Amino acid sequence: MKLNRRDFIKITGATAAGIAVSGLGFDLKPVKAHAGMLKTRYAKETTSICCYCAVGCGLIVHTSNRGDGRVINIEGDPDHVINQGALCSKGSSIKQLTENANRLTEPMYRAPNSDQWQKVSWDWALSQITDRIKKTRDAGFETTNAKGQTVNRTTRIASVGSAAMDNEECWIYQALMRSLGLVYIEHQARI
Amino acid sequence: MTNHWIDLKNSDCILIMGSNAAENHPISFKYITQAQEKGGTVISVDPRFTKTSSKADIYAALRSGTDIAFLGGMIKYILDNTLYNKEYTENYTNASYIVNKNFGFKDGLFSGYKKNEEGPSMGSYDKSTWTFDMDEKGVPVKDMTLANKQCVFQLLKTHYNRYDLDKVSSVTGTPKEDLLKVYKAYAATGAAGKAGTIMYAMGWTQHTVGVQIIRTMSMIQLLLGNMGVAGGGVNALRGESNVQGSTDQALLWHILPGYLKIPTSSADSLEAYNTKWTPKSNDPLSANWWQNYPKYSVSLLKSFFGENGTKENQFGYHWLPKAEDGKSYSWFDIFDAMYKKDIKGFFAWGMNPACSGSNAGKIREALGNLDWMVNVNIFDNETGSFWRGPGMDPSKIGTEVFMLPAAVSVEKEGSISNSGRWMQWRYQGPKPLGNSRPDGDIILELGRRLKKAYQTDGAVKEPILNLKWDYDTHGEFDAHKVAKEINGYFLEDVKIGETVYKKGSLVPAFAMLQANGSTSSGDWVYCASYTDKGNMAARRSNKDAANNIGLYPEFAWAWPVNRRIIYNRASVDPKGRPYDEKDWVVRFAGEEKDGKYTTSKWEGDIPDGPWYPLQNPDGTKREDGKHPFIMTTHGHGQIFGPGLADGPFPEHYEPIECPVEKNLFSSQMVNPTAVVYGTKADSHATCDPRFPFVGTTYRVSEHWQTGLMTRPQEWLMELEPNVFVEMSEELAKLKGIKNGERVKVASARGALECTAIVTKRFRPFKIGYGTVHQVGIPWHYGWRWPETGKEESANLLTPAAGDPNTRIPETKAFMVNVTKL
């Protein structure tokens, strides 16, 4: 039985009104009781911070410690001093961001002039990327400028991103890019 | 933010302008509402009556791009009615400084202007007259009576005397009575013990005068004594969960971590670099905190290169790339160079420039000029798949694309920094989905492979080989190890005062960092975040500080040194007594004897330095006090700001694309130093009958930025399924458009199809030249999701013109047409 969200709201709404046998054709009571336990008995609880705006609202993430090890529920953290449990529409749907069939789960490659993606391995993708970086960097590396001053840079490679990364990831990312000699380093803060 | 989210509740008047906080930072309203319940006033100034406006006590409309005129009028109102905080203005700002007599301003230009025919910058200033008179000791000459005709205060008065109500109203389209309502309510915060604050976002930054809009407000905050106090400050509402942190960690071309400067080619040694960027003050009362610059730069190099950086090789200074003096490598410049085929390789890491960049059509075309692109994201996006986007023929596009799947935030551990500078730790819930990996692991592995590849041969190998890269535990990225590196270590035993800090221990605070290579710190402003006492960002105590104003000093950690309100020494009078005794931030609690302070002690928030106040209780001056604005060279808040590209006082100029034929304030139509790009993909149209309406972009709660993270989600897409263009009933009638119809919106650069939303939230503006209509479009969409391919990015319309200081695009004011399909 495939339900869209409107149907589901209708049905569960009816259940809440006290009709035990709902439009689903079976009793939801035991299901609800089980759902309540999922968060507590069968889950690991971790805290996180919302990934959208920069208010920095606290989240509680419940991850199944059985079976697939995926997220059961994400909700506002009532002990967080800023949001005190509250979340906006985006923050409230973070579970759907995490457990989403549209997510990329494999490295993909698009060859020159091709009209499709192909699935590739991490090892292959990273070795090819390393090769491209080295070739482009070495071909256009400037050790000195027109005035003879030391510059040790490449302007043939550019990087944008990312405010979506953690501080620690940002730090090692800029360190790596600068060690390669990139000066074209930008991200969301510029726009 | 100089303050932080919870502190909004302490405000007496909250001006929300250039932001729609109710929509885009919804949880902030928890504290805005609390301020309102305590009798505070909330003001919303916006071209559109937004969700924020609906909760405000006062609403005023203004035409997009006229904020400086609006705020310049407020400065005039404050000065004309003597509503500024006199003691604060005299003591804590540079209002009393005497300006070079050759400094001038005439018909929209400051002294020293030179046109630039080559572009992309339209012109620049020789700032040699934008200086202060110095006494024989090299300290700025001051007139504490503020009467000298050449002092900053008097020049300020003269400059803004032109911003009278009639003129401001004819430019902004705001009715005069509305201007007065806003001015009166906000200027009331100049009274002692009252605090006013500003909440702004991209509505201010995304203009060719963006920085100067913010400066105008900063000047108002200084005049009213609102900096450093609870419920005050200048608060930028940052739009991404870690855009504060990613800026602090310098994912920007012009800075290194901790706001150090990118080295340029003329700084040919570490010493030359440090000398260039270490400011000098001869005023013993100025802390001039940047005098510590070499401690931070050397400690940073030690974090980059570890033991490989030595005194002999200048700690690896020349292993860092140098920018060319005078050249910009900003966002716009990247895509301009890529469009001109000068860039071959490209990383789009957790970003979607094909939708987020202004003039996105040019960006999409430029991507086709690359040899290769690495696109790291959690969903396929319009950037990685640009070659199969609308109007593209894959067989003609030679760009190789590697698309790498990243983990989402709840699948990894590490810290992010919110808008209030709070660094907060996140823990891993589930493992990364499928074969996706945390960014940290991808970066770490790429670095390992590059190090290996360069072991045998390659151009200038040293920077790569010498880069410190030991941030893993059992082969996996370890956020704790990097967090500790960012904090910094003692690299040998270091004696400071009577204490010996052992080699290998974490540096407790940046005051202990050294310029001789004996300490490391990947980002000095984060020093004290991860110490031998533990991971400060992971703290969870909900106990408030003694002042009970919602600082929660043991919840997470704020940079710098856990200071929750910066410039807080300006919240007390020169004797160290709080201007607001109820909602005090810091107060001096040292002992006193015979009218003199004898010991130094502060209570409340971490003060901006431990020094004594400027005066003793008996009013005598102290030699060991410090001016409160410790990050400025001379210690004062800068009402006259000689550092910016476009003038020491903000001036109204029209947007690059505007609906009026004249600037009512001068014959300079647009910012004479604005940055405008000139390829055939960069056309602009001003006062052009083909594009008669002002356009602006904005956001809705249910989507985020380009929508890449929210468009592949069912619930959020159900709530906001289509890109829409919002317009007034009057404009809809004029164009024969009905609510809900699909229409075409076009600019000089591109076009897209939108659903028309006809509302009362937009109203035509009555301005000096007649009636101006404005429309607005959310920029959350792109052809990849939803899969109909019909919901496109509003940035196909926006211009390739930017602010001269930041090169941030002018996406908040441009010209469009709307037609029925």
Describe the structure.
The complex is a heterodimer of chains A (191) and B (821). Helices cover 34% and strands 24% of the residues of chain A. With 191 residues, chain A is of the alpha+beta class. In chain A, β1 (43-49) and β2 form a beta hairpin. Chain A is elongated, with a radius of gyration of 25 Å. In chain B, β4 (105-106) and β5 form a beta hairpin. In chain B, α4 packs antiparallel against α7 and α4 (67-80) packs across α8 (176-187). In chain B, the strands form 14 sheets. Chain B has a 6-stranded mixed β-sheet. A 5-stranded parallel β-sheet of chain B has the order 3-2-1-8-9. The mean pLDDT of chain B is 97. At the A-B interface, β1, β2, α3, α4 and β4 of A face α11, α14, β12, β13 and β14 of B.
List low-confidence stretches of chain A.
Answer: 8-22
How many helical stretches of chain A? 6
Average pLDDT confidence of chain B is 97
- The count of DSSP E runs of length 2 or more, i.e. the number of strands of chain B, is 37
Strands side by side in the biggest sheet of chain A? 1-2-3
- SS-based structural class of chain A? alpha+beta
What would you report as the Rg of chain B, rounded to the nearest angstrom?
Answer: 27 Å
User: What percentage of residues of chain A falls in helices of 4 or more residues?
Assistant: 25-40%
On the 0-100 scale, what is the average pLDDT of chain A?
Answer: 88
Helicity level of chain B, as a percent range? Answer: 10-25%
Q: Kindly state the number of beta strands of chain A.
A: 8
Shape of chain B: globular
Task: Kindly report how far apart the N and C termini of chain B lie.
Answer: 44 Å
The percentage of residues in β strands of chain A lies in 15-25%
Low-confidence stretches of chain B: none
In short:
The complex is a heterodimer of chains A (191) and B (821). By secondary structure, chain A is α+β, with helices and mostly antiparallel strands.
